[in-house]
UniProtKB/TrEMBL annotation:
<dbReference type="InterPro" id="IPR020849">
    <property type="entry name" value="Small_GTPase_Ras-type"/>
</dbReference>
<comment type="similarity">
    <text>Belongs to the small GTPase superfamily. Ras family.</text>
</comment>
<dbReference type="InterPro" id="IPR027417">
    <property type="entry name" value="P-loop_NTPase"/>
</dbReference>
<dbReference type="GO" id="GO:0007165">
    <property type="term" value="P:signal transduction"/>
</dbReference>
<dbReference type="InterPro" id="IPR001806">
    <property type="entry name" value="Small_GTPase"/>
</dbReference>
<keyword id="KW-0342">GTP-binding</keyword>
<protein>
    <recommendedName>
        <fullName>small monomeric GTPase</fullName>
        <ecNumber>3.6.5.2</ecNumber>
    </recommendedName>
</protein>
<keyword id="KW-1003">Cell membrane</keyword>
<keyword id="KW-0472">Membrane</keyword>
<keyword id="KW-0378">Hydrolase</keyword>
<dbReference type="GO" id="GO:0005886">
    <property type="term" value="C:plasma membrane"/>
</dbReference>
<keyword id="KW-0547">Nucleotide-binding</keyword>
<dbReference type="Pfam" id="PF00071">
    <property type="entry name" value="Ras"/>
</dbReference>
<dbReference type="GO" id="GO:0003925">
    <property type="term" value="F:G protein activity"/>
</dbReference>
<dbReference type="GO" id="GO:0005525">
    <property type="term" value="F:GTP binding"/>
</dbReference>
<dbReference type="InterPro" id="IPR005225">
    <property type="entry name" value="Small_GTP-bd"/>
</dbReference>
Length: 213
């Protein structure tokens, strides 16, 4: 699947999607984002920093502006986390296949999403990163698939180091958001109550922005 970077005036009019990367420290959240945006693997990153990144792509021949928040880990409830959990429209829950604790924590992040948003219908993708380190594997592919079935979400094993399945993760998440919006639009046409799922789309992340193209 090819996801060429967008440019030009048409991209400025495209829909913006607010995505949030969740997961324990050390699982490679920042590396996944940097590989996606700039096709490079970061050699170092301050794990305490939360920051937002922007990029323009095309998914299914439709432009999309992505605003991606990279979080600092720990599934703890704070006022700031509450704010960006409400603002986010889709969430990537990541763990490392070499760290069983990070896999166990993935369920805590899913519960945190529900605690803030009060719906099980929030778009989510589960990611098992560091798939290139098979000799250090602590979490099987079957376990990852099983957790994804529990979450009722797509699942990918990725390698940020070698850029395996990185684009597919973000495309799958945007497709979920688009599907939810289409379902909500159909519901309105049929006279149903409007969905409140994406009401937070207009809330900014309030983070320093870094444009990466």
């Amino acid at each position: 699947m090819e996801l060429p970077r967008g440019s030009g005036a048409s991209g400025s009019l495209s829909r913006e999607y607010k995505l949030v990367m969740l997961g324990e420290g050390g699982v490679g959240k920042s590396a996944i984002i940097m590989q996606f945006i700039s096709h490079r693997f970061p050699e170092d990153h301050d794990p305490t920093i939360e920051d937002a990144y922007k990029t323009q792509i095309r998914i299914d021949d439709e432009p999309a502006n992505l605003d991606i928040l990279d979080t600092a880990g720990q599934a703890e409830f704070t006022a700031m986390r509450d704010q960006y959990m409400r603002a986010g429209e889709g969430f990537i829950i990541s763990y490392s296949i070499t760290d069983r604790r990070s896999f166990q924590e993935a369920r805590q992040f899913k519960q945190l999403i529900y605690r803030v948003r009060r719906t099980v219908d929030t778009p989510v993708v589960l990611v098992g990163n560091k798939s290139d380190l098979t000799h250090l594997r602590q979490v099987s592919v079957e376990e990852g698939r099983g957790l994804a079935r529990e979450f009722q979400c797509p699942f990918f094993e990725t390698s940020a180091a070698f850029r395996y399945y990185i684009d597919e993760v973000f495309a799958a998440l945007v497709r979920q958001i688009r599907q939810r919006e289409a379902e909500a639009a159909r519901g309105r046409e049929e006279g149903q109550a409007p969905s409140l799922l994406l009401d937070a789309a207009e809330v900014p992340f309030h983070k320093k922005q870094h444009s990466k193209h």
